[in-house]
Specification:
This is CBS domain-containing protein/sporulation protein YlmC with PRC-barrel domain. By secondary structure, the protein is an alpha+beta fold. It is about 30% helix and about 25% strand.
């Protein structure tokens, strides 16, 4: 390993660095450091790095493969096993488990919170945790006064000057949430899925309501129920309001009738009504798969107005790919369904043009009771990312998108499946 690594290195300064092989090919980005807890008498040993490779897979790189950290990058040697990392035994994740953990000073001067961890390579080649960067919290009396240590002071202490974190309180979730603020909901959900159940709840409940809603939609059903059930009823209702109605309905379907009704009563009436309509449909029908809130406009609306609607940030790409043209009322179930205007047609038409002049009337809408297999065939046959769904009175009740169909076609545990074979680079 490069000699420039012989001095102390703090983990927070490594996070996000690109990891390369000796030929200069980028492997991924450093997300965490794995240490081995060796008990009170010995410093924790650094055993490897957790690297996020393309495809958002997190893999383990043994610390013995690290050649150098220089110019804001990490260089590794040899082959890297691309099997998804699975934590074992006494292994601990520095960012995931040790940052933000409350510790107690061994000299009796009080407590603090871990903000960073320093590690250093020994002469025998092993990397050990040598120090903690701690923010002092409430301390115990006279000793603190004697040293004039104020509350909130930050200091670096040796590893043996604090009570080992594993013996005190669990890590607060604040640091983990802050460190992963820019992570996409699906990737954050994957990180949550890999955590122990208790830790998953700690992190999930720390999220803002809208962020939690987006992440919940990406988790397996069992974990969605676990997290929602851990919230108080008022907050659970707010999170359900923030979710897409079809995802909220799927989650409520996993609860008892009594729990469903209690949460629906706490939700805003408009949001609850959308979800109630979806709950009425039998499973594996177009109605059970659709979103009841696609983009809907009257025929008199202009192309400029339609483009303004589909630009809304909260719309998924599939939902924003089409505008459904209907007679009033424009809330589902609408007045008579007239047809669809695809995004490409909007881009090719002058902004003042009315939607009524460019409606695609050739695309037959799906019936809300159509089986999911017919929905999939329709999207595949006409190369669609979304399709209209109407009831028996030809009123638009929603739209089904390709991601809804994929969720249905894939195995129930597709979010948690891993490759059977290890790969190497």
């Amino acid at each position: 390993m490069s000699s420039n690594l012989s001095s102390k290195v703090f983990v927070s300064r490594l996070l996000g660095l690109d990891v390369f092989d000796p030929l200069g090919d980028r492997l991924g980005r450093l997300r965490d450091v794995v240490v081995l807890d060796r008990g009170k008498a010995k410093a924790a040993q650094v055993v490897g790095l957790l690297v996020e490779v393309p495809g958002k897979r997190r893999v383990f790189v043994p610390v013995t493969r690290v050649q150098a950290i220089e110019a804001g990058q990490i260089i590794c040697s040899g082959l890297v096993n691309l099997r998804r990392f699975q934590q074992r035994g006494a292994e601990r994740l520095v960012v995931g488990e040790l940052f933000d953990r409350r510790v107690v000073f061994a000299d009796g001067s009080g407590a603090g919170v871990v903000e960073d961890i320093g590690m250093r390579q020994e002469r025998n080649g092993d990397w050990l945790v040598t120090s903690y960067f701690v923010r002092r919290g409430d301390a115990a009396g006279s000793f603190r006064a004697l040293r004039r240590l104020s509350r909130g002071e930050r200091l670096v202490v040796d590893w043996n000057e604090i009570t080992h974190p594993e013996e005190t309180e669990p890590q607060a979730a604040t640091q983990f949430v802050a460190a992963h603020e820019e992570m996409k909901p699906a990737d954050f959900a994957e990180a949550l899925h890999e955590m122990p159940g208790k830790r998953r709840l700690e992190v999930a409940t720390e999220l803002q309501d809208d962020r939690l809603a987006m992440v919940l939609q990406e988790l397996p059903d069992e974990e969605q129920v676990q997290i929602l059930s851990a919230l108080d009823m008022d907050r659970a209702a707010v999170v359900l309001e923030e979710m897409d109605p079809d995802d909220a309905a799927d989650l409520l379907n996993e609860l008892t009738d009594e729990q469903q009704e209690a949460l629906l009563q706490l939700m805003e009436p408009d949001d609850a009504d959308d979800v109630r309509r979806l709950l009425e449909y039998e499973e594996n029908t177009a109605g059970s798969l659709m979103t009841p809130v696609p983009v809907i406009l009257p025929p008199e609306a202009t192309v400029a107005e339609a483009l303004a609607y589909v630009r809304q940030e909260e719309l998924s790409p599939a939902t924003a790919s089409a505008v459904y043209v209907c007679r009033p009322p424009l809330e589902t179930p609408t007045g008579r369904y007239l047809g669809v205007v695809h995004l490409q047609a909007l881009l090719r038409t002058p902004p003042p043009e009315s939607l009524g002049t460019i409606i695609d009337t050739d695309l037959e809408p799906l019936n809300d009771m159509s089986p999911a297999s017919e929905v999939a065939r329709t999207l595949a046959t006409y190369n669609l990312t979304s399709a209209p769904v109407v009831n028996s009175q030809d009123r638009l009740v929603g739209a089904v998108t390709v991601d809804d169909v994929l969720d249905h076609l894939l195995p129930d545990d597709w979010r948690t499946q891993d490759d059977d074979e290890a790969q190497a680079v």
